[in-house]
Amino acid sequence: MDFTVDYDVAVVGGGIAGAAAALQAARSGKKTVLIEKTVLLGGLATSGLVYIYLPLCDGCGHQVTCGISEELLRNSLSYGPGEIPPNWRHEKNAPERRRLMCRFSPASFMLSLEELLLGENVDIWYDTLVCGVELSGRRVSALIVENESGRGRIAVKSAVDASGTAVVFRRAGIPCLSADNYLTMWAIQYQADAAGGDFGDRITLSAVTTSSLDQETHLTASPELLERMYGKHSEAEYHDLITYRGMTGKSVSRFVRESHRIFLELCKTKYEQGKYGRKELYPLKLPLMPQFRKIYCVEGEYVLQSGENAKYFEDSVGLLADWRKAGPEYVWEVPFRTLYPKEKIGGVIAAGRCTAAQGDAWEITRVIPSAAMTGQVAGLAASMAVDAGKEVWELDVHQVQDRLRELGFPIHRRDAGI
Ligand SMILES: Cc1cc2nc3c(=O)[nH]c(=O)nc-3n(C[C@H](O)[C@H](O)[C@H](O)COP(=O)(O)OP(=O)(O)OC[C@H]3O[C@@H](n4cnc5c(N)ncnc54)[C@H](O)[C@@H]3O)c2cc1C
User: Fold this and answer.
1) Residue pLDDT, tens place only, 257-271
2) Which string of DSSP letters, residue by residue, matches 168-220?
């Protein structure tokens, strides 16, 4: 090893979940490091150009997600033009754009997030890859990292896996779950006649997704585009061609190459149609992360399942809204057990899209407000575990819930007036 350091809490991944976890751990008085392999904060939300902070409310006037999730939503607007719809509280069955949500400038959010974390004494390590873990008995005791200083060892009392890919769990040999992804490309482009979009005049988001999110087998990309990309095939064959799991280096590279190609093919199609030339329409910014929605999540003590919206969980640690549907019946309680592994290897807790969920439930837990919510819970629980000298599953969940209530969380649906 070229260096060895130690921290109370080490958070792996500087996405929204990691930022929230690090913020909460630092505020809980813990010596906290946030380790990020790129040189920017925000993960998919910013580097991935996903710029919509989805709703914290149920679309019928009830705010269900609070705490750092709301703080980050407001923080995302500090240096940018987005707005929270003013009348969200008075809307009944509000569509997405009239709920407690916002659209932010990715670059502004990267900067305001960094400012916030540094102000709370989070030690941010950029350009540092977590490439291994050390176990002492059945608990994670150190992270192995690589950066310009060489290969180092970060001894930790508690780690938070907010990597989006469950890298700490996997390196520790803890079972994880995966899911299918479909070819997607969200990028920012210049378009001479685009007026008044979220990024201002002439700068617009180009998005193509080859399947709908709630009907996994339904192709949403145009048949013309798919035929242009792959030649003529049946719908089932197209489905195979555009389905990915980001589980191997080869699959990730192919996904990225193909997402670039689909964007270029759209561009070329428009040039061929004659409406635009290369000066009227061109790519301006590509995502710096592969836009997989789901890669790996931990196989938790409990795995949240499709249809468990409106279900009461005794060990709930907070509420999440369904960003696709308005209504109190679409509010989910999140069990604490989804944050730690079924296989009892200690010293690590999940946050963000690494928390245990499957099917439709993963659609709820993976988005930005949810990442911030589970991130804050993970940062708090990791800190409480350090204080108590226990594993997170040995904590009294009622004490965790009490602390979260003090931090402004509704724990059960009834706490949010539902
Ligand atoms: C195409 C697309 C559209 C989406 N649209 C929306 C939307 O409109 N609104 C919304 O709310 N959500 C949307 N989402 C989902 C949402 O953006 C993400 O799921 C969410 O931001 C995930 O946050 P996270 O912190 O859990 O993970 P990530 O954002 O994946 O953050 C993980 C971080 O960990 C770092 N990391 C990974 N491995 C390592 C390692 N080994 N060492 C060090 N660092 C590491 C990464 O660089 C990254 O910064 C969309 C997702 C996609 C793919």
Assistant:
1) 999 999 999 999 999
2) HHHHTT--EEE--EE-EEEEEEEETT--SBTTBTTEEEEEEESS-SSSTT---
Mean pLDDT of the chain: 96
pLDDT at residue 130 in the model:
98
Task: Identify the residue whose C-alpha is closest to ligand 1 atom 14.
Answer: 367
User: Is the CB of residue 43 below 6 angstroms from any atom belonging to ligand 1?
Assistant: yes
Question: Which residue lies with its CA nearest to atom 26 of ligand 1?
Answer: 352
C-alpha dihedral, 139 to 145 to 149 to 151, nearest 10°:
80
C-beta of 15 in contact with ligand 1 (< 6 A): yes
CA of 43 to the centre of ligand 1 (A): 5
Query: What is the 3-class SS of 3-41, one letter each residue?
Result: EEEEEEEEEECCEHHHHHHHHHHHHCCCCEEEECCCCCC
Among 3.30.70.100, 3.40.50.850, 2.30.42.10, 3.50.50.60, name the CATH number for the domain at 3-179+295-416.
3.50.50.60
Nearest CA to ligand 1 atom 13: 367
